[in-house]
Write a structure and sequence with these properties.
15 helices; TIM Barrel; eight-stranded parallel β-barrel; two-stranded antiparallel ribbon; alpha/beta
Length: 376
């Protein structure tokens, strides 16, 4: 198992982290506890030392199952991370209340990283108002947490604002994969976090599983490369070659995924990508991007539409579906139609096109997507 170090706390971690958001489930939709515990303990026995969960995962059950899995001496073997549900914080006291509840569910007297969950520009302002730094000082003094951090979903400017707000961050958990180098925190943001000594933990390395099952044209790019690896292994390799990355979270849903991930991360040292490998990743991304019809960024300058057409939702939903091996946006489009936001309501007034900073032919795209999804 590839081992790494969090830079400013001198704490060793495994490069592979066990993400506890996608446990195997029973037919009733509950966590299959026995299998989840078997998977977690096998991963730890095989060298995984980083476990990540959160308050809302699996409807609040994830922390309970993780707590059970970490009994019998397993808690002492791992870095345990959970997250403060910022959206449930309505006053300063709520932060400690949630932490105490989570420690009880996890059956431990402390977590290693306690991070602000899904922090963005607006939530940072909220956490500032509730004095999150004072909360951290108290929780650290009481020994309930070891290190502060945050997980992130916003743009690069917001990421830098969060880094600038406090010089005590020890970890930033960000979404990154082959397709997201210019989205959310961005590669530049990751490098800035590394420069400041903030350890980077990666989530969504497979884009919610999308990169594990590429469409035919993307798979052909991989198959043409002399060195043979699965799409999953290539996706992980893209990330664990980055020197700023300490841990990559994988939400393992089956025993087979756990075993395969352990194989992929069974390497002696962090690799350095060759120029040919970097070119491969550029080709893979370009092939994925060429499948996208609209390229809508979701800026919402086209909203509100006077007729209620949900333009960004239609465009981003359609483009996202096109990245999959079996694209079909018709079901998603039907839901939009049921909410009276589909393209049939467009009267071609042109307001959206005049406001679009990308100068997209919105009206034409709406007509084409509507025809494809409805056959009209």
């Amino acid at each position: 198992m590839l081992k790494t170090m969090f830079p400013t706390i001198n704490r060793q971690s495994s490069m592979l982290g066990f993400g506890c958001m996608r446990f195997p489930t029973t037919p009733e939709g509950r966590i299959d506890e026995a299998e989840a515990i078997r998977m977690i303990r096998h991963a730890i026995d095989s060298g995984v030392t980083y476990i990540d969960t959160a308050y809302p995962y699996h409807g609040g059950e994830s922390e309970i199952v993780v707590g059970k899995a970490l009994q019998d001496g397993y808690r002492e073997k791992v870095i345990l991370t959970t997250k403060l549900p910022c959206w449930n914080v309505h006053c300063h006291e709520d932060m400690m209340k949630h932490l105490d509840e989570q420690l009880q569910k996890l059956q431990t007297d402390h977590v290693d990283f306690y991070i602000l969950h899904a922090l963005n520009n607006d939530r940072l302002t909220q956490m500032q108002e509730y004095d999150y730094k004072a909360f951290y000082a108290q929780a650290l003094a009481q020994g309930k947490i070891r290190y502060p951090g945050f997980s992130f979903h916003d743009n690069a400017q917001a990421f830098l604002r969060i880094l600038d707000d406090w010089d005590q961050w020890k970890m930033a958990q960000v979404q990154m994969n082959i397709l997201d180098d210019e989205n959310q925190a961005t590669l530049a943001g990751i490098r800035e976090a590394g420069r400041r000594g903030v350890g980077v933990v990666i989530m969504e390395p497979l884009r919610g599983g999308l990169l594990a099952n590429p469409p035919t044209d993307v798979r052909a790019v991989y198959e043409a490369f002399p060195e043979k690896r699965s799409p999953v292994e290539w996706a992980f390799r893209y990330l664990y070659a980055m020197p700023e990355v300490v841990t990559i979270l994988s939400g393992m849903s089956s025993w087979e995924q756990t075993v395969d991930n352990l194989r992929i991360f069974d390497i002696p040292e962090r690799p350095v990508l060759t120029e040919k490998e970097n070119e491969l990743f550029r080709q893979v991304k370009a092939t994925y991007m060429a499948r996208m019809k609209t390229g809508c960024t979701g800026c919402r300058y086209c909203q509100p539409c006077p007729m209620g057409v949900q333009i960004p939702r239609i465009f981003q939903g359609y483009d996202g579906t096109r990245l999959r091996a079996e694209p079909d946006f018709s079901r998603g489009y039907t839901r939009i139609a049921e909410e009276e936001g589909d393209a049939s309501r467009c009267v071609q007034c042109g307001q959206c096109e005049s406001n679009c900073p990308q100068h997209l032919p919105i009206i034409r795209y709406l007509q084409e997507i509507h025809a494809e999804c409805t056959g009209e």
